[in-house]
């Protein structure tokens, strides 16, 4: 959540009256930024991660909760087995302490360990590095160190019995008594969410968050409803139906939920309702926004490059979703999915029934195919001034292995280049890679746009694709409107723009420079990753994405394929075991700049860099076998590690080729980076299991597990304790988890 402005947030009935005002000024704010920054050039490829944490509270046998005798956060006190784990709803206090430490450090001219901010759940915290990381390969080695520092910093201020977990979903979120301190019960009649499972006391106390929750529900006209298929085990009842939770039995009015299409409900007393049989029913924003993830933001040298990178990572998102899968358990049950994405998407789905296409359009303006939290619906394309990407400093670092000594094919230093950035307006002949691969046929899914906004942008010379992107974001209403902030100076503020932008939660986010900080340029945020248990793994995913970005620029890679196929992939990615058994569409012909890449790929891949040819039996290709624009259904291993029979080089060999093409970079730096790439390669081969598979296995092999899909308090306690120890780097436990975490 970027926006934590103070003020009085308006209820939905009031807020909606200002929606047009917010959009109109939001667009003026964007135009002001555009006019100021459209020709901005030469920004460095800085980047930074965001890690979200759950704050867990453990109970121990024989412990006196009041005296807090057992210190569990790594201060040398012997750990023993917990009997129960709950989410501690005191994380906002922890964040305040950590933020204070940053302030103190900054005042003394030091760089803090991390920058801590609150998140949606009162049991969550988010940390980024105190400053973004630099743009050299050496800087990539800072990621893991920084993540470790942040974890240590938090451990030191954690209360006894508490620990931060890097775990995507708390296994018993929404079960009875899943919060500490226990107290408020879910209030199905009066709370912001009307949840029968989660009380408002679990939501961050900042007024923004309960308002967001209530306004999403009110705008939608009913509670959010998510149904995850139950994981069917040998003793799972069939059909799987649940008892009514206590909060529902004490409710005087039934929650307002719609009648399901099939008229059936699973939870007695909850009729009419939309909980489906054989599914785990989730009914609140906290079930999605209370999950944790890993995000990476990187800066591009120019708006054109940012647009190009945004596009390049769109097809990569579902692939890395599958590989980072970490969410097999929801509300105390094993489910038949491995990822959080659809849950979080459903948890903030504010569309009316008309917008969802369930009723004819009467009062709503658009039919909207997707939730505000969903996959990207439009490629941006490089824009009209995009003729070949950026020549500096990425491309000149790639020197083919076989090029004769002393005759580099690309300039080696800034001084040798006429235009060090080379974006669009360079006359340099070195800019040989044509990277404008975009074709409108790739934008093949229905996308409503705000016509008024589109026209306003077009009047101001914004090209069709960018105008389309922004006017698609602007079909949404602002959800949280502060009374005090309605009138803004549009040349100084981007609050209204950000209000819409930051509540469009897609797999990628295109971030314009802020109006008041000249140090920050055009950025792209990669948002699909699930969280891993160790800092090493989270660093590996982050580093891999950054290296891939550099390889995209260095080799002029082209990943374009129709967005309908990308969407299909994101659904496939969430299925149980998709990393091993799923088949994903991916473009086969990904490297136009074959000469540059070919020499650097391992021998079996020579002359394959261009994909193409007839794929071996068993591989399905579209539109046909000979079309150079074809995409093929492949495994994660094919896509990541390459497949010679298929003639596909693989993203990992290309990233390795990129690293090998950096002869001036210290050997030890390259070796250290290779460790991360090795880890991603092993995950992709299936030599290392996904975090989701690991958690599922630990749960089902627990002595208390009865083969009935139920994750009891004791199983959850042991599981979270294990995740904590893995995160803290306990060598014994790490040894046990090495088939998942690598080292
Ligand atoms: P949000 O929550 O809006 O996505 P955050 O501010 O929490 O954004 O995190 C953004 C990330 O971007 C952080 O890791 C931060 O270090 C990084 N970052 C900040 N400035 C830059 C920049 N100029 N270029 C690239 N990354 C940046
Ligand atoms: Mg966050
Ligand atoms: Mg953030
Ligand atoms: Mg955020
Ligand atoms: Mg973010």
UniProtKB/TrEMBL annotation:
Keywords: ATP-binding, Glutathione biosynthesis, Ligase, Nucleotide-binding. Pfam families: GCS. GO terms for molecular function: ATP binding; glutamate-cysteine ligase activity. Residues 402-429 are annotated as: Disordered. It is an enzyme of class 6 (ligase). Pathway: Sulfur metabolism; glutathione biosynthesis; glutathione from L-cysteine and L-glutamate: step 1/2. It catalyses: L-cysteine + L-glutamate + ATP = gamma-L-glutamyl-L-cysteine + ADP + phosphate + H(+). The keyword Ligase applies. Its EC number is 6.3.2.2. GO terms for biological process: cellular detoxification of cadmium ion; glutathione biosynthetic process; phytochelatin biosynthetic process. It comes from the Eukaryota. GO terms for cellular component: glutamate-cysteine ligase complex. The keyword Iron-sulfur does not apply. PANTHER family: GLUTAMATE CYSTEINE LIGASE, GLUTAMATE--CYSTEINE LIGASE CATALYTIC SUBUNIT. Belongs to the glutamate--cysteine ligase type 3 family. This is Glutamate--cysteine ligase. It comes from Gonapodya prolifera (strain JEL478) (Monoblepharis prolifera).
């Amino acid at each position: 959540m970027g926006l934590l402005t103070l003020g009085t947030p308006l209820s939905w009935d009031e807020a909606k009256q200002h929606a047009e005002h917010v959009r109109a000024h939001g667009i003026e704010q964007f135009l002001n930024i555009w006019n100021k920054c459209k020709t901005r050039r030469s920004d460095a490829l800085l980047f930074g991660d965001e890690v979200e944490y759950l704050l867990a509270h453990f109970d121990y046998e024989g412990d006196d909760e009041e005296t807090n005798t057992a210190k569990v956060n790594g201060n040398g006190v012997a750990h023993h087995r917990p009997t129960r784990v709950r989410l501690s709803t005191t994380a906002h206090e922890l964040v305040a302490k950590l933020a204070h430490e940053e302030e103190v450090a900054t005042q003394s001219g030091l760089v803090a360990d991390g920058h801590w901010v609150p998140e949606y759940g009162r049991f969550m915290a988010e940390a980024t590095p105190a400053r973004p990381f630099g743009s050299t390969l050496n800087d990539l080695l800072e990621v893991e160190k920084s993540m470790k520092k942040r974890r240590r910093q938090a451990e030191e201020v954690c209360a006894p019995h508490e620990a931060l977990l890097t775990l995507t979903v708390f296994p018993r979120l929404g079960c009875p008594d899943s919060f500490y301190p226990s107290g408020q019960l879910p209030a199905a009649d009066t709370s912001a969410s009307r949840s029968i499972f989660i009380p408002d006391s679990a939501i961050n106390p900042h007024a923004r968050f309960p308002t967001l929750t209530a306004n999403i529900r009110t705008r939608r006209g009913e509670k959010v409803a998510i149904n995850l298929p139950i994981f069917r085990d040998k003793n799972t009842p069939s059909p799987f139906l649940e008892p009514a939770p206590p909060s529902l039995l004490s409710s005087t009015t039934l929650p307002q939920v719609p009648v399901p299409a099939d008229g059936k409900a699973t939870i007695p007393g909850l009729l009419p309702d939309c909980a489906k049989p054989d599914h785990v029913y989730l009914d609140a924003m906290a079930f999605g926004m209370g999950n944790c993830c890993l995000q990476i933001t990187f800066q591009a040298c120019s708006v054109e490059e940012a647009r190009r990178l945004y596009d390049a990572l769109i097809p990569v998102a579902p692939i890395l979703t599958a590989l980072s899968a970490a969410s097999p358990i929801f509300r105390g049950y094993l489910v038949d999915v491995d990822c959080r994405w659809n849950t979080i998407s459903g948890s903030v789905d504010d569309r009316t029934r008309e917008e969802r296409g369930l009723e004819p359009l009467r009062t709503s303006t658009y039919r909207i195919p997707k939730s505000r939290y969903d996959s990207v619906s439009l490629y941006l394309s490089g824009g009209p001034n995009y003729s070949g990407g950026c020549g500096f400093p990425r491309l000149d670092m790639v020197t083919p292995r076989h090029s004769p000594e002393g005759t580099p094919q690309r300039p080696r230093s800034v001084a040798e280049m006429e235009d060090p950035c080379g974006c669009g307006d360079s006359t340099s002949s070195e800019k040989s890679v044509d990277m404008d691969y975009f074709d409108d046929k790739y934008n093949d899914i229905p996308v409503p746009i705000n016509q008024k906004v589109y026209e306003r942008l077009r009047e101001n010379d914004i090209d069709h694709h960018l105008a389309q992107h922004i006017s698609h974001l602007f079909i949404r209403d602002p959800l949280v409107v502060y009374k005090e902030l309605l009138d803004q100076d549009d040349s100084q503020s981007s609050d209204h723009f950000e209000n819409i932008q930051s509540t469009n939660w897609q797999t990628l986010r295109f971030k314009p420079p802020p109006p008041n900080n000249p140090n920050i340029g055009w950025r792209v945020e990669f948002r699909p990753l699930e969280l891993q248990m160790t800092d090493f793994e989270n660093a590996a995913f982050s580093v891999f994405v950054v290296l891939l970005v550099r390889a995209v620029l260095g080799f002029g890679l082209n990943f374009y394929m129709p967005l309908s196929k990308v969407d299909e992939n994101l659904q496939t990615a969430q299925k149980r075991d998709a990393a091993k058994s799923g088949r994903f569409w991916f473009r086969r012909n990904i490297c136009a700049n074959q000469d540059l890449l070919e020499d650097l790929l391992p021998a079996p891949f020579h002359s394959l860099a261009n994909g193409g040819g007839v794929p071996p039996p068993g591989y399905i290709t579209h539109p046909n076998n000979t079309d150079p624009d074809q995409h093929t259904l492949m495994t994660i291993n094919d896509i990541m590690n390459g497949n010679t029979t298929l003639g596909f080089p693989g993203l990992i060999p290309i990233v390795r080729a990129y690293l090998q093409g950096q002869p001036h970079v210290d050997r030890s730096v390259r070796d250290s980076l290779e460790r991360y790439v090795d880890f991603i390669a092993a995950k992709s081969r299936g030599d290392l299991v996904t975090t989701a598979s690991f958690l599922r296995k630990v749960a089902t092999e627990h002595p208390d597990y009865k083969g009935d899909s139920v994750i009891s308090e004791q199983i959850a306690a042991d599981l979270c304790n294990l995740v904590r120890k893995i995160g803290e780097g306990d060598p014994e436990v790490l040894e046990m988890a090495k088939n998942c975490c690598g080292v």
